[in-house]
Amino acid sequence: MKSKSGSLLTIALVVFIDLLGFGIVIPILPYYAKQFGSSAWTLGLLMASYSFFQFLCAPLWGRLSDHIGRKPVLMASIFGGALSLLLMGFAHSITWLFVGRIFAGLCAANISTAYAYVADITDEKDRTKGMGIIGAGFGMGFIFGPAIGGWLSKYGYPTPFFFGAALSALNLILAAWILKEPKMAAIERSANRSKRFDWGATAKVLSNPKRQLGVSLFFLLTFAVTQMEVSFAYYMNRYFGYSAHEAGMLLAVMGIIMILIQGGLIGRLSKKFGENALIMTGFFLCSGALAIFASTHSLQLNIAMLMMLSVGHGILHPSLSSFTSKASSAADHGATMGVFQSAGSLARVVGPPCAGWLFDRVNPSAPFMFGAMVLALGLSKTLFTAALKK
């Protein structure tokens, strides 16, 4: 048990450092791209390029990790991430930013491999706890990363990318030194990994109305959130003169709120109110926050709405995940959650270009209002389904 706990803490540390390096560039990328004359549309394509190539390559990395083990794939992904950050740090045009982001997407196998690693070393009883530890490492990286990245941007936009690359190099050494590969056969590893892109399995998963609802709602949530992610920096810079440092600090506060909810409050809220009520509440809060954000140029009110969005998202993400997971049996749990995760990945491919087009061609508030409408559709879908059960 002690060895298992040590392995969980080790993989959580690896994930934390990896996401810290990733989170560092989040508030910087829009400002860095704008330095090369990027429009919001171009920024949307830049953000979508990472998700698109991750979407394509994730199953290849997953199958490779079944055959050669999780550790080599995790290390290859970390190494690729370091190289992509160096490419972007040395970029001298928007083209090279695209090259760096595409390469990062091609190598993005770290998080899914980490979750598969946890499934390898835990049994059913301890798996939720193990996933929670990984989630904590994931969340902490996204809290500290944007704050550090924003602060480092004062020394030039390439600086956070070089710092992130150095962190990735440190992480590679750490993983090589202390991460132990579980001794398992390829067929055992395959059984522990969430399966994606199997169209037959996808059709089977979506044939269940409850699973279909959970997957479709997660797609709508992720699509709406990308409208904010793409437009946020350009919007705050245009109307309030926000720098990358200020944007990074604001994103860090939003991350803290989501972690507080997901790490401690969500379990109590779920027991008291139930997942259905939390899902409806989350969609209501997120939709209302984006609608009000789009309707005002008051800095104080806009910041308050971003905090409200964080609360809603903090409630929705784990509630939808649990709702969908509970609709699957032990035999098809991996396939169900693979389809669930794929829906989010697909939303991150189609959502950013949409946000960029709306920002440039309609007005800067349009992506937020459109996101609010998408979330309102999710709320309506949830309410309609609940009404049918009565």
> How do the SSEs run, as a string of H and E?
HHHHHHHHHHHHHHHH
Provide the CATH architecture of the largest domain.
Up-down Bundle
Please give the radius of gyration in angstroms. 20 Å
What is the total domain count?
Answer: 2
CATH topology heading of the largest domain:
Growth Hormone, Chain: A
The H-level CATH homologous superfamily of the largest domain, spelled out, is MFS general substrate transporter like domains
Q: Report the sheet with the most strands, covering strand number, pairing sense and barrel closure.
A: none
Give unreliable regions as ranges: none
Number of DSSP helices? 16
What is the percent of helical residues?
over 70%
Given this structure, which CATH class of the largest domain is correct?
Mainly Alpha
Query: Beta-sheet strand percentage?
Result: under 5%
Report the count of strand segments. 0
Cα end-to-end separation: 46 Å
Task: Choose one word for the global shape.
Answer: globular
Give me the secondary-structure category: mainly alpha
Q: What would you call the quaternary organization?
A: single chain
The mean pLDDT is 84
Please write out the topology.
Blueprint: H1 2-24, H2 29-35, H3 40-68, H4 70-89, H5 94-106, H6 110-121, H7 124-152, H8 158-178, H9 186-192, H10 199-206, H11 209-240, H12 244-273, H13 275-294, H14 299-326, H15 333-361, H16 366-389
Tags for this model:
single chain, 390 residues, mainly alpha, Growth Hormone, Chain: A, 2 domains, 16 helices, 85% helix
